[in-house]
UniProtKB/TrEMBL annotation:
One of the record's GO molecular function terms: ATP binding
Binding site for ATP: G205, G206, P207, G208, T209, G210, K211, T212
PROSITE patterns: UVRD_HELICASE_ATP_BIND
Native source species: Geodermatophilus maliterrae
Gene3D superfamilies documented for this protein: P-loop containing nucleotide triphosphate hydrolases
Protein name as catalogued: ATP-binding domain-containing protein
Pfam entry (one): UvrD_C_2
Length: 774
């Protein structure tokens, strides 16, 4: 496809486009000024009644979002234009800006609007009524480059949209943070971004095909297209690790979207950030769907029927509780409510009633007054006495304890006998994987990401008895009403009362005598000013309007169950690559993973072009993919050339030192550098590299924007770096539970340079690499 580039000879229309872009920025400034003024006004609105207060709140929120979106549009406001055969040019940008005349085309069309679509999808073969596409590159507010594509000459070209602009974007050094791709979205990506939001859409694609970028742009597209529904229900983006979330965190804000909740798998239970570590085998066992039955059994095991009668002493009388009494009470409670904590009051009532009867019989034994000895009030008093007796309370706590999910799981993991009781038919080896000592009070055993779906499932099965909370809310409300009534009485009783609270006085006087105590109480109730994302993050029963899952191949069946519960409409975008699965609990086929949760109600889209890894590196990675026997095809790299990948064998003793010198040299260049190692080599490599680069970081929190990082393949998942050193590939193959996938992930993280350093001969799968001995 013929492309005209303006960086060699200035494009003849550069000045004209500069005028247009300057005008767009003037419009942006005006829109920002207006929104800021409205925001300022709204903040100072007097809220004369609850409705006004709510309106004010909504306006403040709306204008705040508007100012944020306008601010975000500043960098790269206009991305290009399309020249339509029939209707002339249309400019495409990060936001929409209206023209002066409402009847004409907008001055700038939001990239997500239907009218902008041909900018991304028109080709010489299917020009969609477009004559020419122009990419406009700006630095600050200055137009620095124009790239034109003529679409009417019928020349098929490379199949890439805006090839020159795309290649320039891909060649740029990485900053350690993902950036948006609004300027250069490709046609196959656009199809995914704008796909219908109903049902489950699975996006399968090899490394570097833009799955993460596409998933985030799809989130922005859906928020734009279904703004009202999604603003109310919220949108959740789930990523595998906190590092990954930090890597992608800037993309949605740069698209002007701040209302999205980003969460790692360890953060899907409000109030918990589970970062504990455990073996992949333990995580895999916890991820199995059978764990639902294990939890059910573990709960049933806590509803105890003793082997022998138990005695409690109330006011000197020994009262007997037989196993059959407990068993009957337990049956009644289980019938009344399947949820443990909600059924407990029934169990407690049955047992206390029985003990009260026995207590009354014991007191009345031998006394004959010719009628019932106790009237209703007496019985109620005896009942209270029984219920409050510490011995009775402690017996009830043993027979049917109140359980939090945390307590249930901690007690289960810590006790092999409980594990055995809850896992009929399991092997001893699998049972041992669930075992975890309790830890001390000062440092309890840390929750791991695999525990999170279990805690959430347990909460579903235990139920949460919120009657005390509701009673408290009721009490608070009654108190507020009483206070409000008193205030009104005082004000109405004597208008000459000197009110200290000027604000209250103004409100009461303006509302006049019509103000009721109820209104006044409402007016003083605090409004919930949290954003949808914040409210959703704090509420475990919150259900989202749409859920995006990235690196979805890593999710265990239990994690899927949790996510599907949070999205009952099943409006989900699931992106991943089954050839990169590193966890034992993860997926090697989408069908097998999704069927238990959504049946066959899901559809597949594939991304086929790799935008990250140069072809020479991808060829090496493709051999590894082949060796793994995966059905997946390696994606086609869009870039070739650059530095060819190299390998070196160093001998075992020299390995850490050589890794350090190679990595330090690469890290001296522009861009980011990562050293990817099997887990057993992390410490040695960090120590050696630390001698040369004290700013080296490692582990899940490592941030490549601050210096070189040393990571395991699992930690590097989803990330990319300009230079990558893969250390001890045989170790990577041997140490990972899916070693071939781990090596495939490690090799495909590089955007520019790849060096493989091995202590001994290279594994056969890397035979394509030329080896030098150091
Ligand atoms: N259309 C595009 N224009 C510019 N850059 C793009 C485009 N598509 C993808 N990229 C870039 O390619 C790189 C890889 O994208 P991304 O991380 O989304 O791929 P991925 O499929 O999620 O990879 P992995 O499976 O390895 O996690 C990123 O730097 C991304 O910004």
């Amino acid at each position: 496809m013929p492309t005209t580039r303006s960086d060699v000879v200035p494009h003849p229309e550069l000045t004209r486009e500069q005028h247009y872009v300057t005008d767009l920025y003037t419009r942006l400034d005006a829109a920002r000024e207006l929104a800021t003024r409205r925001l300022r006004q709204a903040i100072t609105w007097p809220a004369v009644d609850p409705q006004a207060l709510q309106e004010r709140d909504a306006t403040v929120r709306f204008q705040t979002e508007r100012v944020t979106a306008l601010d975000a549009a500043e960098a790269g406001l206009c991305v290009g234009r399309i020249d339509r055969l029939a209707d002339g040019p249309l400019y495409i940008g990060r936001i929409g800006l209206p023209a002066d005349d409402a009847a004409s085309d907008p001055a700038l069309v939001d990239w997500r609007a239907p009218a902008a679509r041909p900018f991304y999808t028109a080709t010489p073969v299917h020009p969609l009524g477009i004559e020419r596409r122009r990419h406009i590159r700006t630095r600050g507010r200055t137009v620095v480059r124009l790239d034109d594509e003529v679409l009417t000459d019928g020349v098929a070209g490379s199949g890439l949209t805006g090839e020159a602009a795309l290649l320039a974007a891909l060649d740029a050094s990485r900053t350690g943070r993902m950036t948006d791709i609004v300027r250069t979205i490709q046609a196959e990506q656009d199809r995914v971004i704008r796909a219908d939001d109903r049902g489950v859409l699975v996006v399968q694609g090899g490394p570097g095909t833009g799955k993460t970028a596409v998933a985030l742009h799809r989130a922005a597209y859906l928020l734009y297209t279904h703004r009202e529904r999604l603003a109310r229900r919220g949108l959740l983006v789930v990523g595998p690790t906190p590092t990954f979330l930090r890597y992608i965190a800037d993309v949605l804000p740069s698209l002007g979207e701040t209302g999205v909740l980003l969460a790692g798998l360890g953060q899907l239970r409000p109030g918990l950030d589970a970062r504990g570590e455990e073996s992949p085998e333990a995580a895999a066992v916890k991820g199995r769907l059978e764990m639902v039955d294990v939890l059910r059994a573990a709960i049933a095991d806590r509803q105890v029927v003793p082997d022998a009668p138990r005695e409690v002493v109330v006011d000197g009388f020994a009262l007997r509780l037989r196993p059959v009494d407990v068993s009957r009470a337990r049956n009644a409670a289980r019938r009344a409510d399947p949820l443990h904590n909600l059924a407990r009051p029934v169990f407690v009532r049955r047992v206390v009633d029985l003990l009260t009867r026995r207590y009354a019989e014991r007191i009345g034994a031998g006394i004959d007054v010719g009628r019932d000895l106790f009237d209703r009030e007496d019985v109620a008093a005896l009942r209270r006495e029984v219920a409050e007796e510490p011995g009775v309370r402690s017996l009830l706590a043993q027979l049917w304890p109140v359980l939090t999910p945390e307590r249930l799981l901690t007690d289960l993991y810590a006790n092999p006998a409980r594990i055995a009781a809850a896992t009929p038919g399991w092997s001893d080896a699998d049972r041992a994987l669930l075992h975890r000592p309790r830890g001390s009070a000062a440092s309890p055993a840390a929750w791991t990401p695999a525990d999170v779906p279990l805690l959430e499932e347990a909460e579903e099965l235990l139920g949460f008895d919120d009657s005390a909370q509701r009673a408290r809310a009721d009490r608070d409300r009654r108190r507020a009403l009483a206070r409000a009534q008193e205030t009104l009485d005082v004000l109405h009783g004597s208008r000459s009362v000197d009110l200290e609270d000027e604000h209250l006085e103004a409100e009461v006087l303006s509302a006049g005598d019509l103000l009721s105590a109820e209104d006044l109480a409402d007016r003083h109730r605090e409004l919930d000013l949290r954003t949808t994302a914040e409210r959703a993050a704090a509420d475990r029963t919150w259900t989202f309007g749409h859920v995006v899952v990235d690196e979805a191949q890593e999710l265990s069946p239990m994690a899927w169950r949790l996510l599907v519960r949070r999205c009952p409409t099943r409006s989900m975008t699931v992106v991943g690559d089954v050839a990169q699965t590193g966890s034992l609990a993860g997926a090697d086929r989408w069908d097998a993973v999704l069927r238990p949760h959504v049946g066959d109600a899901w559809r597949l889209e594939e991304l086929t072009v790799n935008y990250r890894t140069p072809a020479e590196i991808m060829e090496v990675a493709a051999d590894v993919l082949d060796a793994g026997g995966s059905d997946a095809r390696p994606p086609r790299s869009v870039r070739t050339g650059g530095t060819p990948p190299v390998a070196e064998t160093t001998g075992s003793a020299r390995l850490p030192g050589r890794v350090a010198s190679v990595a330090a040299e690469l890290a001296g260049d522009e861009g980011t550098t990562a050293v990817l190692v099997p887990p057993s080599r992390v410490a040695d490599v960090v120590a050696a590299l630390g001698e040369l680069r004290p700013d080296v970081q490692s582990g899940p929190g490592a941030d490549s924007s601050l210096g070189p990082v040393v990571l395991t393949p699992g930690e590097a998942k989803g990330l990319e770096f300009d230079s990558v050193v893969v250390v001890d590939p045989q170790g990577v193959l041997d140490e990972g539970v899916r070693g071939v996938n781990d090596l495939y992930v490690a090799l495909t993280r590089a955007t520019q340079r790849l060096v493989v350093l091995a202590p001994g001969p290279l594994p056969a799968v890397l035979s394509r690499l030329e080896t030098a001995a150091a």
